[in-house]
Amino acid sequence: MKKVSFAEFGGPDVLRLIDAEEPHAGPGEIRISVRAAGVNPVDWRIREGQVLGAHPTRLPSGVGLDAAGVVDEVGEGVDGVEVGDPVFGEGSSTYAEFAVLGAWARMPEGLTFEEAAGYPSVVETALRVIREVGVRPGQTLLVSGASGGVGSAVLQIARERGIKVIGTAGAANQDYLRGLGALATTYGEGWAERVRGLGRVDAALDLAGSGVIRELVELTGDPQKVVSIADLDAPESGVRFSGVAGSVPHALAEAAALISRGRLHIPVEKSYALTEAAAAHADSRAGHTRGRRVIAV
């Protein structure tokens, strides 16, 4: 089978499309014929060799955590899913023709495989950081870097829970944020003052790692009311860095329920072929994403 892999840490150019042995589902796992894989910032952070305790890496390594596809192998002890079922979920080395998943859910009706591949890690992260930052219904949550996949999910899930949201993004994505129910403003000089003009901020999330931790602490008045998923230096300011996943099966079940009720939609901004994985990583790292990027297999 074809699989994207890297044998050394570095830039996107270390990625190679190789011929590899097919993986097989172990106990409690399934294997899918991959139709699409999600492109997440954690993918290129791992490839660069960033120290991420939740994702120790042994070289050579495959790439990718999220995928959607068709079940073609069911491991021992697994029930409720059969060969031929369309599923989306999280596993390892998902930029490949076949991948093993450790957590999955049946794809909601009406989703394409490319759309479904964009949800697993994104929704898990959104649910986790909303919980960790402790924001409650009736309060206001500021989301820095709100137009990407996690931001898109956070805005919609928070609004569903009765939380007011303020989002920052580039000028081209202001209408997109408003369409998700957020009060929107742009990055750049004076952004914190623009946020103050939109109202009180009770809690804040840093999703882009663009050097805004100090301002987020000032806006909330308390580093304990700020969580970052993108700035590894955040703890130096007393801010929690969230990098360890919670319950992925729970997140997938909630994602499927929200999608089925029409309460969650994350658009696919761009789809890439397996041969274009390096370009997908370069684009993801550059930011300014509206929704998700995926690899179509």
Notable features of this structure?
GroES-like_sf; NADP; 6-stranded mixed β-sheet; cytoplasm; globular; RNA-binding; 297 residues; 6-stranded parallel β-sheet; alpha/beta
Shape label: globular
Total helix count?
Answer: 9
Distance between the termini: 11 Å
Rounded to the nearest angstrom, the radius of gyration is 19 Å
Bin the helical content: 25-40%
Biggest pleated sheet:
6 strands, mixed
Give the number of DSSP strands.
15
Q: What proportion strand?
A: 25-35%
Order of helices and strands: EEEHEEEEHHEHEHEHEHEEHEHE
**Structural class, from helix and strand content?**
alpha/beta
Q: Mean pLDDT across all residues, rounded?
A: 95
Low-confidence stretches: none
Subcellular location: Cytoplasm
Pfam family, one: ADH_zinc_N_2
Protein name: Oxidoreductase
Keywords: Cytoplasm, NADP, RNA-binding
Written account of the structure:
Keywords: Cytoplasm, NADP, RNA-binding. It is found in: Cytoplasm. Pfam families: ADH_N, ADH_zinc_N_2. Helices cover 28% and strands 27% of the residues. The chain has nine helices and 15 strands. It has 297 residues and is an alpha/beta fold. Helix 3 packs across helix 4 (149-160) and helix 3 packs across helix 8 (248-260).
Question: What topology does this entry show?
Answer:
Elements: E1 2-6, E2 16-19, E3 30-39, H1 41-48, E4 61-62, E5 66-74, E6 86-92, E7 98-106, H2 113-117, H3 120-133, E8 140-144, H4 149-160, E9 164-169, H5 174-179, E10 183-186, H6 191-196, E11 203-206, H7 213-220, E12 226-228, E13 240-241, H8 248-260, E14 268-273, H9 277-286, E15 292-296
Parallel strand pairs: 8-9, 8-11, 9-10, 11-12, 12-13, 14-15
Antiparallel strand pairs: 1-2, 1-4, 3-5, 3-7, 3-15, 5-6, 6-7
